[in-house]
Amino acid sequence: MIKVVVCGASGRMGQTIGRMVHEAPDMELVGGINLKPSTFFGAEIVEAKDAEALIQRTKADVLIDFTVASAVVGNVKLAARNNCALIVGTTGISPEQRKEMDAAIIGHVPAVISSNFSIGVNIFWQLVRESAKLLKEYDIEVIEGHHRNKLDAPSGTAKTILQILDEEAGTREKMYGREGMTQRKNEIGVHVIRGGDIVGDHKVMYSKNFETIELSHRAYDRSVFASGALVAARWVVGKKPAIYGMSDVLGLKK
Ligand SMILES: NC(=O)c1ccc[n+]([C@@H]2O[C@H](COP(=O)([O-])OP(=O)(O)OC[C@H]3O[C@@H](n4cnc5c(N)ncnc54)[C@H](O)[C@@H]3O)[C@@H](O)[C@H]2O)c1
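Above are the sequence and the nicotinamide-adenine-dinucleotide SMILES. Below is the predicted complex in structure-token form.
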């Protein structure tokens, strides 16, 4: 049985992951961490100050973190010093926070970090990579939409799309929205929609002359991210200490 602790257990993703771990025959939900004590799916949720004691008492194999950028570095350090493997889905992490996380992980514990754990999105990224190689001469626009409570913008998934486009079609300036007299040059336009309960929409548009090619992904339910996080959790336990991506978990080539 893989013993799992969920950090951000009372949140939207934490609740979905908690339910799926509870229902998984090969996993045990041994606890959760959040800002206030509570319970979920038969397990206790402790507040952050009691997190270390929970991990030690339960001998957790893996900590799954879907919290906020300001909390994630502390959570990663906590798991690393207790030899607990990591799944990190939290987005909006600054380059400085990422550096601190990497230093805590490398040489200590195995970790899968991804801005999107959906298997479909990881295949979508691969399609973006392949198409960008062929469509370097096209104008590129990236559009993403999420629910009204999402804090960071553009989404971590959109930032990964932009990184892939830079790698495969050449680095271009990014234009975050347009207003007034704007003359299109060679930039990539990035457009963010926030509203209602949109789970996660991403679209890449390549346009030239009289044609447009569109690649898009739409998530209808958070369970797509949660089930991918569980796939990664099963994979990461027992791996060599290092930072891995979902492409490693799924065996997708770069
Ligand atoms: N990688 C992916 O596949 C993926 C998918 C969906 C969401 N996300 C990201 O996951 C994160 C969480 O998303 P959400 O929609 O569940 O948000 P949410 O606001 O519903 O949940 C976050 C939870 O973390 C808790 N929290 C804050 N500080 C904490 C701390 N120090 N210790 C423990 N818990 C703490 C909050 O109280 C909240 O309950 C966001 O960064 C989001 O962008 C990633």
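The radius of gyration is 19 Å.
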